[in-house]
Amino acid sequence: MTKLIVYEPIDQQVVLKFSKFSLQKGTGTDNVQLYDGQNETSPSLGVYSSDTTPPPSGVRSSSNELFVIFKTDGKNDFAGFQASYLAQKPTRE
């Protein structure tokens, strides 16, 4: 399991975009979990695998923090994923 927290300036939101995404299919296999805050007790922004891929527009936090967990069952080899993040001013609804 790999955990990563992304911090940006306080007046920004984090946008995480995946340019490549190829994980193992099936429940209980590889996945990427995104949380709207600094740890896994924060609200979930989604759990993504080859069954449910992230949106092309990316995933946006509501604050300046985004927590990422990558879990793998260690079986089979897939290409994995490539992601980048950027800070953006909050969008207005």
Report on the structure:
- The protein is 0% helix and 47% strand.
- The protein has 93 residues and is mainly beta.
- It has a single domain, classed as Spermadhesin, CUB domain (Jelly Rolls), CATH 2.60.120.
Let me know the largest β-sheet: 4 strands, antiparallel
- Gap from first CA to last CA: 35 Å
Mean pLDDT, all residues: 91
CATH fold label: Jelly Rolls
Order of helices and strands: EEEEEEE
Q: What's the gist of this structure?
A:
The protein is mostly beta strands and 93 residues long. It has strands spanning 2-7, 13-22, 31-35, 44-48, 59-60, 65-71, 80-88. A hairpin with an 8-residue loop joins strand 3 and strand 4 (44-48).
Which descriptors would you attach to this protein?
0% helix; 7 strands; 93 residues; four-stranded antiparallel sheet; three-stranded antiparallel sheet; Jelly Rolls; elongated; mainly beta
How are the SSEs ordered, and which strands pair?
Blueprint: E1 2-7, E2 13-22, E3 31-35, E4 44-48, E5 59-60, E6 65-71, E7 80-88
Antiparallel strand pairs: 1-6, 2-5, 2-7, 3-4, 3-6
